[in-house]
Amino acid sequence: MGVLKEKGPIEYSKGLEGVIAALSSISAIDGKNGKLIYRGIPIEMLAKYSTYEETAYLLLYGELPTKEALEKFSAQMRELRVIPKKVEECIVELPPNPHPMDILKVALAHSALYDPDRQKCCREGVMRKVIRIIAQLPTMIAYYHRARTGQEVIPPDPELSHAANFLYMLHGKKPDEEEARIFDIALILHAEHGLNASTFAAMVTASTLSDINSALLSAIGALKGPLHGGANERVLKMLDEIGSPDKAEEYVLNALKEKRRIMGFGHRVYKTYDPRAKILKEYAEYLSDKYNDRKYIEIGERIENIMIRELGKKGIFPNVDFYSGIVYQFLGIPRDLFTPVFAMARSVGWAAHVCEYTANNRIFRPRAYYIGPDYVEYVQLEKRR
Ligand code: CMC
Question: Could you confirm whether the keyword Transferase appears in this record (predicted)?
């Protein structure tokens, strides 16, 4: 039979490393020098001057908005934060134990059924669907958290920014300006990152000409894993397990000896310090001092020094997930919501890539190189042993 086996050299990249699968003008990563730009603008500038709403506009529409355009876009986001009553009723009835990332899938799938633009595939209709999802994910997360902890849900406040409103819906009190701003910056830093696993998952689904909700559901499923967005929650678990800075050395060296991964380190593209982690570390430091609670930051810094000493030459440095958890912890965000918060921020990057790719679509369909047997005879069931 042999015909099924391919001959000659093959090109194979495990995990698609280095494979260029799309052309994009949304963001670029310089993994050697630790640089990241959104639509050409360095993230340091966005973290300093922009807001999540403005960055979302930039990513979706390709340019910074004018004052009027930003006002219109922000107003639309605020208006769309309210989730359908049926979805609210469903969320508050969901069991309290599943991981909130699984809840997010249920809530997003459910809300898609009530989307007034569900049947629309014109650009305006798709954009409204996208903005609706970006606006509603925070409401879904906050409602679920309030309900599972036996508290009344807090409806969104149209007076508040995207970041401040999430903290308000979660805690039932308006955050101070500084905390809202730090959270806003964290959302900006998580908004987009090229063809990471979850974005690619969204693009694969969308490339079949499925709908945007299905694409973002694929993305949420991919983000949940500990090698991707699920790492942030595990970083805090590790810091707790270690307990104090003087125990970090033994913990890390043991983990490396046993070939276990240290969460929040390493990256497929960055072979140096992740620029997002640099900014988040500054805020983790700042909040640790502000609250006079340096336990986590000190363990974190000790781990960072050991990891860079041991694996820096291999290009292993802190990634975005290493210090984000410390920041979130000080903002009162429960640990199992760290990854959902990542999802609500990244929803804009997912949507931007889906829109960009499908505008000039071709279905994703890679191949596997067959390494199984050439020919196996079919044995009748009664003769099998
Ligand atoms: N701890 C210990 N060793 C590591 C780590 C780590 N965190 N990351 C990579 N390595 C080692 C790995 O063992 C391998 O060593 P060797 O060549 O001796 O076998 C080498 O570095 C290359 O690793 P890889 O798995 O081939 O790298 P990758 O590009 O396939 O994986 C990664 C990238 C992010 C999945 C990986 O670095 C990792 O598992 N990190 C921990 C989980 C994590 O923090 N994920 C968040 C990623 S950034 C934000 C996001 O995407 O959500």
Answer: yes
Residue 76 maps to a domain: yes
Residue with the smallest CA separation from ligand 1 atom 46 is 228
Which among 321, 336, 353, 374 is annotated as catalytic? 321
Its pTM surpasses 0.90: yes
**DSSP SS3 for 341:** helix
315: number of Cβ within 10 Å: 13
**Residue 99 annotated among the catalytic residues of the structure:** no
Element (H, E) at 30: strand 27-30
Shortest-distance atom of ligand 1 to CA 198: 51
For the stretch 64-104, pLDDT in tens is 999 999 999 999 999 999 999 999 999 999 999 999 999 99
Residue range 35-51, pLDDT digits in tens: 999 999 999 999 999 99
Segments forming the whole domain that contains residue 201: 45-222+347-358
Q: Is there a catalytic annotation at residue 190? A: no
| CATH code: domain of residue 319 | 1.10.230.10
183 and 161 belong to one structural domain: yes
Distance CA 172, CA 155 (A): 9
